[in-house]
Every structure is written in structure tokens, then in C-alpha cells.
């Protein structure tokens, strides 16, 4: 006598479940296109350039010049006491890779790279990755030149005194100060929301003079990668 009641109850429960499923909101689009995964975010920018520096096999340490740039799309720019920045190291040597060294800069110095054909859009998920090592209290900071000629230096800093460290950071998390590029010194207060959609040059400085060879105070910068979207000049 109980079987009809059980059957009817099961049918009602199934009908209620079907109605609830039909009324449930559709899942938000996801990166993989399936429900339950991470929601799709903004597109990631491509690698805009990578520079590993070119040091001729067996060449001694010397002042860096245009021949030290391996990427033929890039131009090297030196500022402050930048003429004293040295290139040293050897390809294939993980303990001493080709790198720029600021130890002989008697005053603050900086180096930057400029793409010959494009500005770079450093908005959104743009980032920088580099391989650095330092001595003393020196730290490597990013610098950028905007299309209108404004120079900025970021508060982000990298550098280990123990070993070469590869690190990366998101540009959107960096706070920026104006930079007197001739003296390579900071100016004023933090710049609120600078327009990084057309950047002319990207580089680095440690904002301190070097102490010469041996432990003391200097920065090494080996490869540098910049991720952003090209904007035609």
C-alpha cells in the first residue's frame, strides 16, 4: 500500500530539482570556458624585448657601448655617470653571466633601452623580469621615459648580495617618482597615476655611486625582459 506514495514523492522531488536547475544563473565565463574555473582576466601582454648583453668571448671588462646590446632592435642609452658602466662576464657562465656593472660610476648612473620602431604600453599586466646581484646597500630600480619626455623611477627594488637572483614584478604595483635624468636623482613626491601607455625607454638605476672593484657598493644587471604591448612610433 506504501509503494504509490513513495513513487509520487520521488516524482515530486525530481520535478522540484529540475525546476531549480533550470532557474539557476549561468556560470560566469572562465579562462578555460568551463564552469568552476578561475574567471577570465585581462589578456597578458607579450614579451616586448629581452636583452642578455653581448660580451665577446674572452673580452675583458670595459665600458659598455652599442656593441654590448645583442638585440638589434634596441638602442642603449646611458645617463648620469653612465659612461662608466662596465660590461663584463661570459656567456654560459652562471656564476658570471654577461652583465652591466655600476661599480666604477663615481656618481649616480643609469642605463636604458629604446626600441627603434615602437613605444611600449606598460599598462594592465605589463611586467619586468631581470637577473640581478648587488653589493652593500645598492638595489636595482626600474626607470622609464614617457613619450612626452618625462622620466620616472620606481620604488620597486631588487638585488641579493649572496647570489644572482631572477625576479619579476608587475608594473601596476610600482609607485613612481620623477627622475632628474641628467643627475639621476629623484625629484618631488610620488606621481599619481602616470600614463604608461606610451613608454619610450625602459632601464634601471641603483641611485648610488659605485665603490669600485671588490665588495662595497655596486649593482649587476644581467638579462632583462620587458612584457608589454608595442605601440608604433
CATH topology of the largest domain: Jelly Rolls
The termini sit apart by 86 Å
CATH architecture of the largest domain: Sandwich
In angstroms, what is the radius of gyration? 26 Å
Largest sheet: 7 strands, antiparallel
> Mean pLDDT, rounded to whole units?
89
Helical segment count: 1
Number of domains: 2
Q: What percent strand?
A: 35-45%
CATH homologous superfamily identity of the largest domain:
Galactose-binding lectin
Broad CATH class of the largest domain = Mainly Beta
* Unreliable segments of 5+ consecutive residues: 1-22
Number of strands: 16
Would you list the SSEs in sequence order as H and E? Answer: HEEEEEEEEEEEEEEEE
Gross morphology: globular
Helix content percent band: under 10%
Notes on the structure:
The chain is mainly β. The protein has two domains: 1-41, no CATH class; 47-232, Jelly Rolls (Sandwich). The chain is built from one helix and 16 strands. It has one helix at residues 3-23; strands at 47-51, 62-63, 74-80, 86-88, 99-101, 109-115, 118-121, 127-135, 141-146, 151-154, 165-170, 176-180, 185-191, 199-205, 218-227, 229-232. Strands 1, 2, 4, 5, 8, 11 and 15 form a seven-stranded antiparallel β-sheet that branches. Strands 3-6-14-9-10-12-13 form a seven-stranded antiparallel β-sheet, with no helix packed on it. The longest helix has 21 residues, at 3-23. It is globular and about 50 Å long. The model is unreliable at 1-22 (pLDDT under 50).
Amino acid at each position: 500500500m506504501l509503494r504509490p506514495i513513495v513513487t509520487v514523492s520521488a516524482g515530486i522531488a525530481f520535478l522540484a530539482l529540475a525546476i531549480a536547475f533550470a532557474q539557476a544563473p549561468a556560470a560566469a565565463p572562465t579562462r578555460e570556458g568551463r564552469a568552476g574555473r578561475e574567471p577570465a582576466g585581462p589578456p597578458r601582454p607579450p614579451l616586448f624585448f629581452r636583452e642578455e648583453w653581448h660580451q665577446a668571448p674572452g673580452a675583458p671588462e670595459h665600458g659598455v657601448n652599442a656593441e654590448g646590446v645583442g638585440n638589434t632592435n634596441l638602442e642603449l642609452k646611458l645617463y648620469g655617470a653612465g659612461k662608466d658602466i662596465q660590461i663584463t662576464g661570459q656567456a654560459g657562465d652562471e656564476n658570471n653571466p654577461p652583465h652591466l656593472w655600476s661599480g666604477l660610476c663615481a656618481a649616480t648612473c643609469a642605463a636604458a633601452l629604446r626600441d627603434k620602431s615602437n613605444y611600449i604600453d606598460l599598462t594592465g599586466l605589463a611586467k619586468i623580469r631581470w637577473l640581478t646581484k648587488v653589493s652593500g646597500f645598492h638595489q636595482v630600480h626600474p626607470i622609464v621615459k614617457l613619450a612626452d619626455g618625462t622620466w620616472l623611477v620606481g620604488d620597486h627594488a631588487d638585488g641579493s648580495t649572496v647570489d644572482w637572483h631572477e625576479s619579476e614584478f608587475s608594473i601596476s604595483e610600482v609607485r613612481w617618482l620623477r627622475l632628474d635624468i641628467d643627475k639621476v636623482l629623484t625629484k618631488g613626491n610620488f606621481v599619481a597615476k602616470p600614463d604608461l601607455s606610451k613608454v619610450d625607454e625602459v632601464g634601471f638605476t641603483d641611485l648610488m655611486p659605485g665603490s669600485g672593484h671588490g665588495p662595497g657598493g655596486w649593482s649587476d644587471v644581467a638579462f632583462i625582459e620587458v612584457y608589454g604591448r608595442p605601440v608604433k612610433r
